[in-house]
Amino acid sequence: MNIIAEHLTYVYNAGSPFAAKALDDVSLTIEEGEFFGIIGHTGSGKSTFVKHLNGLVRLPSSLKHYKKPKAKKGKPAPIEPSLKVGDYDLANRKTDFYGLRKRVGMVFQYPEAQLFAETVFDDVAFGLKNFEKGMKEEEIEKAVRAAIEIVGLDYAAVKDVSPFDLSGGQKRRAAIAGVIVTRPEILILDEPAAGLDPLGKREIMDLLHRLHGDWCRTVVIVSHDMDEIAENCTRVAVFSEGKLVCALPPKELFLKAEELYALGLDIPLTAKLCLALKERGIDIDCDFTVDGFVRAVLDRKGEAQ
Amino acid sequence: MKDVSFGQYYPVSSFVHRVDPRLKIVFLIAYIVAIFLATNFYGLAACAFVLILTVAFSRVPVLKVLRAVRGVLILILFTAVLNIFFYRGESEPLLQWKIFAVYREGLIFTAFLVCRLVLLVTLSSMLTYTTTPVSLCDGLESLLTPLKWIRFPVHALALIMSLALRMIPILSDELDRIKNAQMARGADFSSGNPFKRVKALIPILIPLLISAFRRADELGEAMEARCYMGDKKRTKFKKLHFTWRDLIVFLLLAGLVTGVVLLRIYLGGVV
Q1: pTM of the model
Q2: Tens of pLDDT along B17-32?
Q3: Which of A58, A114, A176, A190 to mutate to test the interface with B (most CBs of B within 10 A)?
Q4: B-chain residues within 8 Å CB-CB of A105?
Q5: How would you label A226-243 residue by residue, b for 16+ Cβ within 10 Å and e otherwise?
Q6: ipTM of this model?
């Protein structure tokens, strides 16, 4: 499923003194199979954007009582925002949003806050029981076991344990299992590694790579950690004040250090090293992954000798 | 605070907004007393005049003010209907059907009652439109201070109120987040029978409660870490002061109450 957004605009509390524009004319295409990154400082609209993708935030035209804005005299008619996720047209009120949510999984920031059931098994099975009404017990068990195992938890050890008795990193993984258990085609994660220790972070990123491909065709992550983005993403979108600044592969994006700094964003350590080397007259051309950087440096060393 | 705007507060700056909250609370109480002291339409007209002044100097849109009446419309209609049919007048009834009878006095009295209720509801909502919950709370604490003499924990009560107010937007944000997360997992809160719907709330309420307790714990620790001791000689960051505005409002209020009492004495009742 491709994600195609055109002229997406969203205003919170439209028409009241609290009105705030969260998205402003965003046009962006995310293709099937990508490991897509979204960066931007707090309040840049990235969360509102991803909430659109499974219909938690709806386009005005998909709501009841929607009135088409009238064209003002002398001005062209306002452009209708549109958003398509695969075959689902999210601008249409008749779209099956329930079906959409099954195919677009969403892991919110600190997903462990959504745990509620008495056992890990029940919590992971929650989404499955909602979406696949009438599924047989054995099938549920099979799916839950697979989800718990792929996130790296021991099925036999945790299935009957209360989710509140798990450690922080385990809770997060259990919560992710509760989302991916329905095998969504697109998986969206809002800062999946926030607040974890370095080991926990590494485990989550490894998990996402395990999921990407067979389990979920497309993975979209929102992150503040540029190293994480540079290391993992095929393409990155930069948001600022509700607008899309650019969408580029990390290799091209992190060459624009000045612009990113101006937007209040950072660049990965590898890009900083490249800049520092450049100041000393050594030009390194790499894709800003740690591996790529090391290889490029070693190549240069080989040339110099 | 995204799609929820808490309470009714209408955030503009105006004369009425800047009046001391204590005076506003006293004003509301005295106004209610005046409404019930008024026994004829002249008295209510005086009250209505004060209300119009209040709305005019508050910069709150009139439509928004009227919306407050809409909220209690059913109550007002219910009272009106009961009064029309059950008021027993002394003259001949205008209409009669079995035990129900409509009298002329009944109609007048009902109109009087409806005016009273509308005035009461409208001015009460003006208080919440023009005063933030926090300053309402401050005002209330200050007004309740005399109760300290009988060892009533005024300060603790005020602290509880302001903490509760402070937590509402936080918890409502949290609620939003948890609701979204469960909806993304296919939870459905809007269909099925009432029993099913209540059951559907469990996946929201449990995480919300857990987070509320966690926050309460953290807040308690943070207050202890800053050596919070309760009422022991604490001073206020924002002191309430009476200004010329408050003097004008106070004079208006005194005028209103006196006027209503005089009208009552000299013009008598409505029926």
Answers
A1: 0.74
A2: 999 999 999 999 999 9
A3: A114
A4: 184
A5: bbbbbbbbebbbbbbebe
A6: 0.85
